[in-house]
Design brief:
- This protein has a domain at about 15-55 and about 115-225.
- The radius of gyration is 22 Å and the shape is globular.
- It is built from 9 helices and 4 strands.
- Helix 1 crosses helix 8 (about 200-220), helix 4 (about 120-135) packs antiparallel against helix 5 (about 140-160) and helix 4 packs parallel to helix 8.
- With about 230 residues, the chain is α+β, with helices and mostly antiparallel strands.
């Protein structure tokens, strides 16, 4: 490989990253708005899924003192390394269905809004919006856009699924993404066994989204002589 080729190759690899960076700098406010919209919409979708699955509307809602709980955790937990894992599971809002046939009542199912998951869902929405913008830019072939769209869709599905925070009394009432699997018919024990791989699936989903964005950006920054359209021109 010549010195010129050795210089050009890294430049071409970096060009998509520069385009992605330019989009983030120019459109960060719009991407943030889309991200927040996805984070909110995901909560609505999860609640709707619970209502459809169990055929009943929620009959209770509780707002928790999340900031106060965080302060209490920090004050009462000796090891600072334990703060974040405990805080990450603290609830902000709980909406669900209470069955009062048993004493003071038992929550049959609920949606749990957990603040630590909202930034993840916001990032998901922002990345999806970025992929859409890159796909709409001139120079992106239809086949490339479709392929990247499939990858982005799979990645978004993995992230959204593994950050679901629903609880069901059959699954020990623990809010988790595997509750959705159990609700769809997968065995409860099998669903709970899969819970540990949730973070890896979420990371894989973000990886697919980034690869999709990179492919779309690479197509946009590729020299015209290398595009299929240029050969047919």
């Amino acid at each position: 490989m010549t010195a010129v080729a050795q210089t050009v190759a890294p430049t071409r690899l970096a060009a998509p990253l520069r385009l992605i960076g330019a989009e983030l700098r120019a459109r960060w406010a719009q991407l943030l708005v889309w991200g927040l919209a996805v984070a909110v919409l995901s909560q609505v979708v999860m609640l709707a899924a619970l209502m459809l699955r169990f055929g009943a509307a929620p009959n209770y809602a509780v707002a928790y003192d999340w900031p106060g709980a965080v302060v209490t955790i920090i004050r009462s937990t000796p090891s600072a390394s334990d703060w974040l894992p405990i805080i990450a599971d603290e609830w902000l809002i709980e909406i669900g269905r209470m069955n009062y046939d048993y004493g003071n009542g038992i929550s049959e199912w609920s949606l749990n809004v957990i603040p630590s998951r909202l930034p993840v869902l916001t990032a998901l929405g922002a990345l999806c919006a970025l992929c859409v913008r890159l796909a709409r830019r001139p120079g992106c072939a239809l086949a490339t856009a479709r392929g990247a769209g499939l990858g982005a869709g799979l990645g978004a599905g993995l992230v959204a699924m593994t950050n679901a925070t629903m609880s069901w009394v059959v699954c020990c009432a623990a809010p988790s993404w595997v509750v959705g699997l159990a609700m769809m018919g997968l065995g409860v024990s099998t669903s709970l066994a899969l819970e540990r791989i949730g973070p890896w699936l979420s990371f894989s989903g973000f990886g697919l989204l980034f690869v999709a964005a990179y492919v779309l950006a690479a197509r946009r920054t590729a020299p015209m002589s290398q595009t299929p359209e240029a050969h047919h021109a």
